[in-house]
């Protein structure tokens, strides 16, 4: 009987600890989401400034070169930030990391890197590394998506 009471007390302590841990995770997730909102707003303002400067300072026909690539990089950075915010939001809702969304975010980040890449300044090894990263992420995404479809 005494052993049962000790086990019950130990279980109660574990439950209280886990409840506090769950509350801590929730609080941190909410702080991260608020921080991400601030970052996204700052990025959108920065994008507006870059677009305004590019339009005002480049001559006719010059806008379609490097300024457009830089602007695409900003757009993709904002999309990546929104995907990260979605990851945090999903975690707050269900306390589960959405692996499919994490892989999609990583694919977007590597794609952004390739889009803004200056091919004159990178080595062949870097390009091979990026290709391997994209291939690995694409295969991972396919596996996770295929697994999620079959389990539904």
List keywords for this structure.
152 residues; 0% strand; mainly alpha
Describe this structure in words.
This protein is an all-alpha fold and 152 residues long. The chain is 86% helix and 0% strand. The chain has 2 domains: 7-97; 98-152. The longest helix has 56 residues, at 2-57.
Uncertain residue ranges: none
Taking the alpha carbons of the first and last residues, their distance comes to 45 Å
Mean pLDDT: 87
* Tally of separate helices: 4
Report strand %.
under 5%
User: What general form does the structure show?
Assistant: elongated
Q: Which structural class best describes the helix and strand composition?
A: mainly alpha
* SSE run: HHHH
Count of distinct structural domains: 2
**Number of β-strand runs:** 0
- Gyration radius over CA: 23 Å
**Main β-sheet description:** none
Approximate helicity band = over 70%
Give a nutshell description of this structure.
The chain is mostly helical and 152 residues long.
